[in-house]
Design a protein that fits this description.
heterodimer, A: mainly beta, 7-stranded mixed beta sheet, 4-stranded antiparallel beta sheet, 11 strands, B: mainly beta, 0% helix, globular
Chain lengths: 113, 112
Amino acid sequence: DADVTQTPRNRITKTGKRIMLECSQTKGHDRMYWYRQDPGLGLRLIYYSFDVKDINKGEISDGYSVSRQAQAKFSLSLESAIPNQTALYFCATSGAGLYNEQFFGPGTRLTVL
Amino acid sequence: QKEVEQNSGPLSVPEGAIASLNCTYSDRGSQSFFWYRQYSGKSPELIMFIYSNGDKEDGRFTAQLNKASQYVSLLIRDSQPSDSATYLCAVNDQTGANNLFFGTGTRLTVIP
């Protein structure tokens, strides 16, 4: 089984709808991240969490919210989706410490019409 | 604003040649550096990391780091068509968050 899973893998929705993207991990990592990727803009950090009670905004948090339900679960919500939130969304996890790599989930392709 | 700069490419090399991918970063205090490979529509996967100045080799891949010049590179020897992908450079944020900043990636095409 994959270490980091994301659901759904693809989603098409309409402007104004509420959308939740879910991420689960079996790596036992404390740190979890949500990124979005747009062509030509690379990976941009939306939110990150170092444990269940520690959630922080990233570079582009406006229009998004998150919930860390457990060490293994980190959800991203779009309260009222808009077309410029159409992107590829990745969840990632890492251990603590300076030299820990991040492990990525398979991604969710979200289209907002 | 911390920046990680990569030439977006595309970089095309013939099969069997050496591909050289470059990255510069703005945060002089950064201490860990990562190269990720991303196939189209897939998630990034780590192929190399480097923390110390100099070269680090792993199979056909060599990462090179020069902290004084704030420069990190990835060499791929004996390039194969399966190496065709986008390569992302990532640099750590030296503040307490220790997050990663990613470059926009260099698209590599290996021509058979």
